[in-house]
């Protein structure tokens, strides 16, 4: 899969490979030490954020957290039918 | 008011397999519209993995919609929480920008039930374009429903590739029937899905008549 910045795709791939391995072999098995991919993540992040800035992406909007907060959308009551 | 939609899908894979597959969902034969995917933020809190990703997808709109929504692509923010203790993965996606024209929010809960995974998908589609909001919501809802099948087929394709043996041996409902918990959960899910389908249909008809 491509990164938003063409120049970041290779860094993304290296990080994703590291993460997927860590997720399967460590995290799901109860080992929550995530330092193994930290360096790869940092380099990849710098690239992505640069690409995002170049594309004028609104960081404030991206940074907004919704999941797990009061701002999450709620399902309507069961009897509402229109 | 936003249109609401929900449905339920059962994946013939364990929750762990679905959780691993989730990060490898793209590309797949049904995901030509997904252009890019990046991890923006990731951290562990209280034993759960919190991730925020940024996706770019092509924006497919009918001719009449181009007037409001002429962007060729759209950015999507996806938040997720993986809770391995409770075998729960929750994802929450929203579009970035153009939210007044059309906002699509999707929340999916992937829950491990016996040897399978049940995904409960909810979506809220809204628009605030004066005079056109109903038509846009109805269009958004229909597009979302169609995309659902694609999303599930694409994800299943990836899972079958990652875990080929599993998919052969999980050939059936024999496994489901043998588990009382699973059949109970499935019945509840089916009822919920039926209610939701009726509700969604009613919504679409109502909007067609009104517009």
TrEMBL record, chain A:
Transmembrane segments: none
GO biological process: phospholipid translocation
InterPro entries reported in the protein's UniProt record: MDM35_apoptosis
Record Pfam families: UPF0203 (PF05254)
GO molecular function: phosphatidic acid transfer activity
One Gene Ontology cellular component annotation held by this UniProt entry: mitochondrial intermembrane space
PROSITE patterns linked: CHCH (PS51808)
Keyword Phosphoprotein: no
Keywords: Disulfide bond
Catalytic activity: a 1,2-diacyl-sn-glycero-3-phosphate(in) = a 1,2-diacyl-sn-glycero-3-phosphate(out)
Coiled coil, from the record: none
Family membership noted in the UniProt record: Belongs to the TRIAP1/MDM35 family.
Protein name: TP53-regulated inhibitor of apoptosis 1-B
Native organism: Eumeta variegata
Upper classification of the organism: Eukaryota, Metazoa, Ecdysozoa, Arthropoda, Hexapoda
From TrEMBL, chain B:
InterPro entries per the UniProt record, alphabetical: PRELI/MSF1_dom, Slowmo/Ups
Domain of life: Eukaryota
Any single Gene Ontology cellular-component annotation: mitochondrial intermembrane space
Pfam families from the UniProt entry: PRELI
Location of the PRELI/MSF1 domain: 2-167
Signal peptide: none
Protein name: Protein preli-like
Provenance organism: Eumeta variegata
The gene coding this protein: prel
């Amino acid at each position: 899969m491509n990164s938003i910045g063409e120049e970041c795709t290779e860094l993304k791939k290296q990080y994703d490979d590291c993460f997927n391995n860590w997720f399967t072999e460590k995290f799901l098995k109860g080992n929550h030490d995530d330092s193994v991919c930290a360096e790869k993540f940092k380099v990849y992040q710098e690239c992505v954020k640069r690409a995002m800035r170049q594309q004028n992406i609104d960081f404030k909007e991206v940074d907004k957290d919704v999941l797990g907060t009061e701002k999450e959308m709620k399902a309507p009551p069961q009897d509402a039918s229109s | 008011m936003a249109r609401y939609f929900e449905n339920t899908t059962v994946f013939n894979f364990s929750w762990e397999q679905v959780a691993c597959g989730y990060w490898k969902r793209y590309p797949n034969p049904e995901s030509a519209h997904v252009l890019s995917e990046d991890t923006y933020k990731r951290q562990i809190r209280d034993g759960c993995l919190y991730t925020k990703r940024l996706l770019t997808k092509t924006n497919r709109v009918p001719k009449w919609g181009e007037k409001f929504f002429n962007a060729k692509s759209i950015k999507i923010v996806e938040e997720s929480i993986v809770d391995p203790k409770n075998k729960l993965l929750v994802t929450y996606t929203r579009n970035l920008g153009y939210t007044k024209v059309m906002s699509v929010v999707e929340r999916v809960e992937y829950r491990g039930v016996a040897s399978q995974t049940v995904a409960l998908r909810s979506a809220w589609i809204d628009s605030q374009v004066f005079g056109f909001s109903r038509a846009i919501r109805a269009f958004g809802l229909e597009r979302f429903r169609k995309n659902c099948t694609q999303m599930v087929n694409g994800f299943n394709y990836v899972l079958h590739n990652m875990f080929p043996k599993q998919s052969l041996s999980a050939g059936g409902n024999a496994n489901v029937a043998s588990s009382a918990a699973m059949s109970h959960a499935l019945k509840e899910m089916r009822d919920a899905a039926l209610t939701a389908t009726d509700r969604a249909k009613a919504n679409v008809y109502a909007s067609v008549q009104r517009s």
